[in-house]
Mercuric reductase (Nannocystis punicea), 458 residues
Amino acid sequence: MDRYDVVILGSGQAARPLALAFAAAGRRVAFVEREHLGGTCVNTGCTPTKTMVASARVAYLARRAGDFGVRTGAVSVDMTRVRERTRRIVRDFADSSRAVLAAQANIELLFGAGRFVGPRQLEVRLNAGEVRRIAGEVVVIDTGARTRVPPLVGLDQVQWLDHAGMLELAVVPEHLLVLGGGYVGLEFAQMFRRFGSRVTIVQRAAQLLPREDADAATAIQEVLAADGIEICLESQARRVIRAGDGIELTCDSPVGSRRFAGSHLLVATGRAPNTDSLDLAAAGIAVDDGGYVKVDERLATSASGVYAVGDVKGGPAFTHIAYDDHRILLTNLLSGGQATTRGRMVPYVVFTDPELARVGLSETEARRQGRKIEVARIGMDRVARALEMDEARGFIKIVIDADSDKFLGATILGVAAGELMSTIEVAMMGGLPASALRDATFAHPTLAESLNTVMTAR
């Protein structure tokens, strides 16, 4: 059995910086990955989807050129070129990551499937056929998650797509059915509508993005409807069958049973952890009912010396959270610190157009906690820069503690919402009172000066 100081199983967004930091500190590292370095984010998540979102926005703006006084011809989309552009960017990211890791003398890359065979001991079946047994003083699990397949009658009899499959389409679907109204479903729905598909979203809940405030969900529904997307809420999918060259989806809805005929089906109904093939029980590693690895606030599992980071441990499934997980482990394991996940901010952005961004408490959450709050809100149609860009859809809403005048959270739907939200996050990190942004001098005309306006509107 080959022994290492650190074994990293999987290559999500925490894995690469962890490996490099441990190697730089003189630790011998085994880095185990089944296929593609970089995890979901680089290969099938953030990098490719946001690349395609950018292509879809160009198509959208080209069709709107007349609104800006610009004349263009007919707009068409070449999905082969879109796909190649996406693949090139993903390839560049992945190749760069592999080159950096391979250049480190203290890191050994093992491409294959790993599973536990004992406490901090693993068997790795390499893709080349060899089987290696390895052990680590520290083991970090970063195997991520995949699309959760819903128990939908007939799904195993039809061709359906998850987010990774959507990235490989070489044609624009005639009619895309999207099962699920979360951020993955909404981003792909709008993207392919702009590429030219007819799109229908089937959502089980009473609103899109169920964790958001009702006003945010309603506003984003209006945006998507304006793009020509059909949205069916409170609709439970019951059965799917092949119908000619396409599919037919049957749903229960508020108006009774409905049937939707489509050319392609995207399943975006949630995620499942990649733990089922790891034999975690052999190492005494506990999981919850959903199969996610249980960790404490220092990311330690139930097994001594074993940690879990990123999506595999449940909780917010965002790249920046996985990256923060790596900082926690490095602080504690290399610097003797006591970093935890306690009180960690969880900012995020849904990359529809316009973006929906949030940090901290929503208005609904703050009221549910019984807090005494003030809510500052303006429409983007009161933001000079947004009007000049003809991007006045959406709103800015900031939740403030009425007693301390400190920010509790923000929800922003609008152009560059993620950047505006980040400004609020920095103010929250610094403990600034709301009056500080009200009285700040921001350059004109910028989107940032909208923070003057919204704070004055309290």
